[in-house]
Specification:
Blueprint: H1 2-45, H2 58-70, H3 75-88, H4 94-117, H5 124-140, H6 148-154, H7 198-206
Amino acid sequence: MELLYILLAIIAYFLWRIYRQKEEEKEQIANEKFDTELEAKKKEEFNDYPHLIGNLEYTWLKLFGKVYIEKNIPHLKAAFLMYLKEANNTQLDMRVDRLFDGTWDLTEELLEHLGKYHECAKYEAEIAIITYWQTIAQEAESFTGKDFETIKQKFQSAPFTDIQKIPSWFPKKNNHPEKEFSFSDNKGNFPRESKGSPDVKKKLKALGL
């Protein structure tokens, strides 16, 4: 009789394993279907921003790629106001402000570079930029109470250095220079010194900034 119970237990175990395997396969198929449908939804909803799909989170595309466009909010102006907020309200020293200044100047350079040498749909570059500034503005909220060296070190890693990913999202035009846009100096420090972009400064001035 004991042998029978053991045999039944073994059969029950294998039946359970087969059932679980089938359930897991169903869950996997359902998940894959969901991911495929979500990706299709994103491509349909944001077909005006083909290079940002898969590179920016869906929520940021929803906000900056749809809501801002519908409400006619200038992305460049919004990004600059985020910069001003962080650069002028860190309650730290001027060295921190200079880090933000340098990062903003690189932002201007990058926008000009993308316009000249990369394939970008309308608003794509600015959506990428405002998303970047939104992210680092959130990170900067943790700066209070930290010394300059700690903050400087934070600038050498994500999300601050994530701006370096942006050029890779957009195909290069035939006139693209041999070397890609550089964000760091010869020693690898980020951000490198920059004078910004006169063209972008004109756009900001036209926006009242």
